Structures
1.
Amino acid sequence: MDWNELDDHAASSGGSGGGFYTFKVGDNNLRLVSLGEHMTRAGFNPGDAPRQRFLFWCIDRDDAVIKEEGGKDKVKLQIVDCGTMIIKALRAYQKEGDYAFPADESPPYDINIKATGEKKQRRYVVMPARKNTPLNTEEVLAIKDLTPLSEIKDRLKAKEEDAKLPPAQASGDIPADTIVNDPVRGKVPVAPPSDEIDIKDIKF
């Protein structure tokens, strides 16, 4: 989904934060390495408006590799789950000025997302790096093997639907013995349905 389409979805209200990468108060130095995948998630409480969420693959510049004993370090790729506050800021940079880039590409520079406050008081300020920086060879190769975010979204939505049903009626679309190929951790089982939905439970 390119930035023009994300811009349409971001017109709805929503928060920010969460996902495999967890935003921390202060600086969050990231490189987005994919286009975003939009999804609508239920509100936190009954009666709340749906939340507009946007998934991206990213590299945490402060924690960019997986250390392996006796082997070469691997690029650490994570999913970051953003809300409209961050998307609108990124979209503004994408469209104009010195930081503009094509709508069908990810930003060609690192970004700093400064977070303040907690929970519903959380606010984000997005600042791009002063210059474009190419990804290195290891990062480019690792990105080629990433699971499409559309598949991650489908698994998350299936888990949310299962959680709405009594256990006997759960669809079983994500059985506990299903094995998926994780480009970072190898083969891992998909978590079975549970009463609580957490994007961290969705394997990739």
2.
Amino acid sequence: MAKQTGITGTVTIGDASGVSQTFSADVQTFNINQSRAQIDVTGIDKSFMERLPGLGDYTIELAGVYNGAGTATAVPAFGDSSVDLAGVFNGGNGTATAHYVFSSMGTALRAFTLVVGPQGTAVGTAALASYSVARGADGALTWTATLNCANGWAMSWS
């Protein structure tokens, strides 16, 4: 893979019911942090640390501008197939919003696909740890969401 910018990307994450939703227009920044625990195995005969690799983990942090279109209050009752959901979200363009995807929190694991620029894609399963909406002193209404590794497997990159 050649060096590249992060210009253009796609964020697709499952909502609380497991349906994949794309809401890239609401996302301004993201951070993907992969880590591995370091197990201290230093004996008393050493003057420097000895470590072995332990369990891996990852966290995904997303942030963006609040978009209330398609919030849960606009969604019809479960099983009501008479409503065209494409018209419910984001003014009728058929895409969900970050608020719709994250506001219900729920306990279901979320499948995700993050397309990073033209040549990088991260895919995995995560648990929604937090969703926050904040108003800044300048009047900006923004949101942040944090998802953590949840199924015992590393995310895959392609």
3.
Amino acid sequence: MGADGARLARSFGASVFIAEFKVPHPGRGYSTGMDRGRALRSRSGSNDFDLSEIASSATLRIVVPAKDEALRIRETIQTLSDHFGDSATVLVVANGCKDETSDIVRSFAATCPRVELLEIEAPIGKGGAIRAGLTLGREPYVAIVDADGSTHPAQIDRLLTHCRQHELSGVIGSRWLPASSITRKQPIQRRIASRAFNLLVRMLFGLSYSDTQCGAKVFERAAIDQVFDRLELANFAFDVDLLLAMRLFHCRVTEIPIEWADVPAFSKVALMRTSASMLLALLRLWVRSSVFRNLPWADLLARSSVIPVKRGLRFLLLVGGDATSPRTNALIEEIQHQGHTVDVKQLRGVLDALTFIVSYLREGHRFYDVLVDLIDSNGSIFTVFSTKPKILTASIAALDVDQFPAVVRRVAKRCGYNAFLWRLNGEWGISHNRVELLSERS
């Protein structure tokens, strides 16, 4: 990943501090055309800032998504730090916070090197915040923990021990198994909503877990890396998205009973609004895993719940003639230079065209983010009916090669992707937040 980060550094800038990572709001804070050495800088302005002293021995990274959690975040990170010590890194992902959450974590991190802050100014949702946090660090295990302190750190330790001893891909805590201990129950309406949601998940997807939504989960880093690019949901249905991806990749994930206590005084979940958005998100997941996924409108369902956090855009180039022309090669090189991946599909006859149409309808339309049509100046039949952002032959023909960087950046912006860079343990890391239209709404 080091080479990719170096390439991206020329196009995107971000401020990175000790144990703190700040991501500007989409559409703000990024400058282009920067020298590689300037894309990453310390608080003092040095280009050689290194965070390698922060973490290498920890076996667990605890990701804590937080939105306006100033009243309880200090106690949560204090108990996690006291329990795990140097064996775990606590990463608080503050997204869209309007209170003092980030300041509290920042002050705590100043005296505790195992506490880190990833600050995202845009409200990218619980799922988006978790996925952004999952891209950081190299610890072999990752835990996802709610910020409300409803799960004691000892229970997270139990999940980790169970995962390691049984060589599992993941272990999730359950509040609904017979041996579970609930010291303070949720209000009856929330318990009814929880059971109805779980029943729907079982019916739609056949997942056997009794509690997909408990904020206590531990996974192998390798399993997370395997399914990461498959994830897309940003709201509270993210947990189902993750578990479905784990099943798709044949990862072994089990659930065990835990001790849990509701924190009613601080609950900020609007039951009706959240339930409605989660139901729509489940419907999207169901369509995505059914034969209906090939319908053109399938990707538009519950679109507001989708904020993919990916490592780069995926371009598909369609060419009808020479696939190695200088202009085509220049475009491919620029796409790769900006940190994206590109596949080239040469369609030289009817058989090639039919084969492509079948494969694209089956999987390609979900796999690729941008289509580049170099077959017809006005868009061939392969891209006319696609909802993906497009680069057409007419646009490329009218531009000089030195204008290609602006074209790629523009289409990436249309996809809603903003890059943030950081450096941890002496290595570059790359991620992208898809926060489509959020900058326009705010």
